[in-house]
Amino acid sequence: MPTNIAVTTVGLTKRYGRTTALRDCTIEVPAGRVVGLVGPNGAGKSTLLRLCCGLARPTAGTVTVLGGRPGAQLGKVGFVAQQTPVYAGLTVGEHLRMGERLNPGWDGELARRRTVRAGLDPRARAGGLSGGQRAQLALTIAAAKRPELLILDEPAAALDPLARDDFIGDLLSAVGELGATAILSSHLLGDVARACDHLIVLAEARVALAGGVRELLEEHRWVTGPRGRRVARGAGGDPVSVEDLALAYLGGAR
Question: Going by DSSP bridges, is the β-strand pair 181-185/149-153 parallel, antiparallel, or unpaired?
Fold first, then answer.
């Protein structure tokens, strides 16, 4: 796999019994990009991320992460799951010490800087932190591994607008400092528009749209047709936003 590709999937399919969670997914995630992964509930976003992390096995097709099998790349991948899970009974400092013991590439100075910047008291128990602080702690632990790939599954969904804004800013800062690739799954299209320069839209368990944001915006325009306003390829028409583009494709694969 070319070194400029962080993740590639070919015909990736995952079924749970009779339910197909992801069908025939073929994508490439360029290295060094911040990728927005959007889609309605049940579209396959979490399934795709779990396959990329090696937490699930494909039913069919292949997934390659950082040039190898997902399960063999865990030291190079930082993962923040939904609800930004942390251990309520452990202090911030205990989380960081655990991270250091479990990760050979742990960057203690990066972790210290991030906790100071986020205002996290090392003595505070995680169960007493606000939602935004827990999200910052989870991101700090993932980033201090110094991963080549950060995978974030709806990490800011439960945060208030101010905390979410802080989290997205911190995410961009961490990605820039690490020189990493990031995949951010989110229902919050404003966050995706702000943070991401690559877009993947899943709908009905399939890839509906994928590509660089700049290129996709150049390829699409609003046009008015017999059924009302819609997005179409080609020249002419009014420019679209990232939110417009994602919404236009969320109804199903084109």
Answer: parallel
